[in-house]
Design brief:
By secondary structure, the chain is an alpha+beta fold. The chain has 4 helices and 4 strands; from the N terminus they run βααββααβ.
């Protein structure tokens, strides 16, 4: 399993609209995530910053993410949510993938 963490930033004054959009995530977006072997997806907010986390359980991360990104529903969702998020990188990305430095499952 691969764990993915990202950080992004909301445009000032758009938090409520972004949250409202996520209260009714489109069913096709959820299906696309499931089909791409994503699970346990969470988004956290601190002011205008967003932290997201999900787990990838497939065996071809780049391929699965490319297939997901090619879907019209994924492109439409990124456009809809992108209206509320600032560009974070020099190459125009709206999120930065974080480096995992430690993990423990704390199993009994």
């Amino acid at each position: 399993m691969k764990r993915i963490g990202t950080i992004s930033k909301l445009k000032p004054g758009t938090a409520e609209k972004y949250i409202e959009l996520h209260k009714n995530v489109w069913p096709g977006v959820v299906k696309a995530g499931h089909d791409a072997h994503m699970q346990n997806f969470s988004i956290y907010r601190c002011g205008d910053y967003l932290f997201s986390y999900y787990e990838y359980t497939g065996d071809d991360f780049e391929g699965d993410m490319a297939k997901k990104a090619a879907l019209q529903v994924s492109q439409d969702w990124q456009k809809a949510t992108g209206e509320y998020r600032e560009i974070m990188t020099e190459d125009g990305e709206r999120f930065i993938e974080l480096e995992e430095i430690w993990h423990e499952d704390f199993e009994a």
